[in-house]
Every structure is written in structure tokens, then in C-alpha cells.
Specification:
The complex is a heterodimer of chains A (about 180) and B (about 160). Chain A is of the alpha+beta class and about 180 residues long. Chain A is built from three helices and nine strands, in the order αββαβββββαββ. The chains are: A alpha+beta (about 180), B alpha+beta (about 160).
Chain lengths: ~180, ~160
């Protein structure tokens, strides 16, 4: 009699507490799934800084509106390339998400850059020189987010002793 | 009379109550009819058992007899290992099972994303297209400066 009483009184409580616990864990699992999906979606957004830079051995730029390049970038370029001075011709910042498709940035009358997410982990960069599609390169987004600089560069057609650079970086992850 | 008072009445009859409580129960038995009936019934039962219960002497010493029972209980417990550790195992399983399920679900949800990230983790400045014939290029990377350069030459 005691045993049957115990079963009658305890069993409904047990069942309800078990089902409540299962509900809590299912809810937790769904929350984790949502957070994971949300996090992966957020990771796809990419902030970029694009700088058109002129490298020269001259101390003063021909056009005075050009500003000296940020010392951090200047030092990096000077350690890799032969030119002593680097001046920023134009700078533009943008945020790129997969939903945007492609975004084109005009850096000068002759130079434009188009960005596109090739996939979640790869950025596709298209260079247009004087309106002509000149080059397509791919860059790992993870590398940019770890401080890597992506640089497109070439000789200055008007003055072969100088050079132009398109320096692409991820703000907040840039070299210090 | 409550259940507690009934138990105390039984303890009072067995002489197990401290003096203060014993006096209180004695008063209860004097004043309360139910308590009085219970004590009378219990006294009669005790008397009947004292007279009618057969005495079965154990052929071993008291210590040996109880040590046999203790050994038997231990042997039974050893033969059922799962029954000897239900408390911690059940409490551990109660959390680990759903936690494992949640972790597995999270890994399953995130695995395509992680796989994709690992696949393309280091595609630094790979040139994929040069549509113009009069344009040449080469790629190099400075590990020290963490810089990938695509140098473009126009002929």
C-alpha cells in the first residue's frame, strides 16, 4: 500500500520534472544553434580601408594636397620596397557583406577597385586601370583580419622611377 | 491525536522518552481517549508477544551472527556495481547527456562554417585572372611585414 501510494504521488511529479528539463535543454540547444548561425553571419561582414599611395624618392610631392602616409604603413612599405617616401593620394573605407554583391571604389580618375565576397573566407579584388579590367586577385579574409596587408602595385607610367600602391587593410586589425 | 503523538506514545511505553516528554505523554494518555486506547492496545500487544512469541536461540555468538549478515550485505552490494553508484552516476548523467547533445548540435551547426574557414584560411593574394595581354604580374609575400604584394607591369 505504501509503495503504490508512493508511485501514485511521485510519478506525475517525476514525469513533469523530466519533461521540463528536456524542454530546457532543447531550448538551450536551439539557442546555441541560433548563436552559431548568427556568429557565422556576422563574420561575413568585412570592414576595409583602401589607400592609393604614391612611392617616390622625392621629398616633396608634386601636388601638395598629398599627405604623408601613416607612419605605420610607411615603415612597412619602406622595409619591402626601395622608395624612401610614400604619400597618400586617396583613402576610402567601406563595409562589405555578402548581401552587397560587389562594391566599387574610385581611388583616382585612373584607378578603381572592385570588391566582392568570393565565399565566406575569401575576398575577390578587381583592379581597373583607366577603365580597363586589369587584374583579379583573391585574398584570405582571415589573413586581413590578422593584420595582413594586401597590396597591388606597379610602376608609375609617367615616371618609371616612382610607383603606385593600392594598400588594402582591415581597420582595427592593422599593423601597430 | 497526531501521528507524532502516536509514535511518542509507543516510545513512552518502551521507556525511550526523556523525563520531560514522558511526563507530557503520560498526561496525554490520561486526558485523551484516543491516546489511552492506543496505549492500552500497545500494552496488550506487548503482553501477548511476551507470552506467545517463541524463543529461537542462535547457535553462534552474537558478534559472529551479525558479522555474517554484514558480509552477506557487502557481497550483495559488490555483485551489483551499478546499484552501488547510482547517486553520483545519475547526477552526472543527468547533466552530461543533455550537455553532450547540445555540444554535438552546436558542432554540427557550426561545422560547415568552420570547414569553410579552414579551407580558405591562407589564400593570400592569389592571382586568378589577368584579362589583358599587355599586363604582366608577379606575387610575393613578405613574412616579416605580413604583406602580400601583387606587382603589375604594363608593357
Amino acid at each position: 500500500m505504501t509503495r503504490s501510494k508512493t508511485l501514485v504521488s511521485v510519478l506525475p511529479i517525476r514525469v513533469s520534472s523530466v519533461s521540463r528539463r528536456v524542454c530546457i535543454w532543447i531550448a538551450a540547444a536551439l539557442a546555441v544553434a541560433c548563436v552559431s548561425s548568427f556568429a557565422s553571419g556576422l563574420a561575413a561582414d568585412l570592414r576595409l580601408r583602401v589607400q592609393l599611395v604614391w612611392g617616390t624618392d622625392m621629398s616633396q610631392p608634386k601636388a601638395t594636397k598629398y599627405e604623408p602616409l601613416d607612419p605605420l604603413f610607411q615603415k612597412k612599405l619602406a622595409r619591402v620596397f626601395k622608395w624612401k617616401n610614400y604619400f597618400r593620394i586617396h583613402e576610402q573605407k567601406l563595409t562589405l557583406s555578402p548581401a552587397d554583391g560587389q562594391k566599387r571604389v574610385k581611388l583616382s580618375s585612373k584607378c578603381e577597385i572592385e570588391f566582392r565576397h568570393a565565399d565566406d573566407s575569401t575576398l575577390e579584388i578587381k583592379l581597373f586601370g583607366e577603365g580597363r579590367w586589369t587584374k583579379t586577385v583573391r585574398q584570405a579574409i582571415k589573413a586581413l583580419e590578422q593584420g595582413e596587408l594586401a597590396v597591388l602595385a606597379g610602376d608609375d607610367k609617367d615616371n618609371y622611377s616612382d610607383a603606385w600602391f593600392v594598400v588594402i587593410s582591415a581597420p582595427g586589425h592593422e599593423p601597430r | 491525536m497526531s501521528g507524532g503523538e502516536a509514535l511518542k506514545t509507543q516510545a513512552w511505553l518502551d521507556g525511550e522518552l526523556p523525563p520531560a516528554e514522558a511526563a507530557a505523554i503520560a498526561r496525554l494518555v490520561n486526558n485523551d481517549a484516543a491516546a489511552r486506547d492506543l496505549s492500552t492496545e500497545l500494552r496488550q500487544t506487548t503482553a501477548a508477544l511476551a507470552v506467545g512469541e517463541p524463543v529461537r536461540p542462535v547457535p553462534e555468538s552474537r558478534e559472529f551472527y551479525w558479522s555474517k549478515i554484514e558480509r552477506a550485505i557487502r557481497a550483495a552490494e559488490d555483485s551489483r556495481p551499478s546499484a552501488s553508484r547510482p547517486a553520483w552516476w545519475r547526477s552526472l548523467a543527468r547533466w552530461l547527456v543533455p550537455a553532450g547533445f547540445t555540444a554535438a548540435l552546436a558542432v554540427w551547426v557550426a561545422s560547415p562554417y568552420l570547414h569553410q574557414r579552414q579551407q580558405g584560411s591562407w589564400v593570400s593574394g592569389a592571382e586568378i585572372e589577368s584579362p589583358l595581354n599587355d599586363v604582366g604580374s608577379f606575387t610575393f609575400r613578405s613574412e616579416a611585414e605580413r604583406m602580400t604584394v601583387v606587382w603589375i607591369s604594363t608593357y
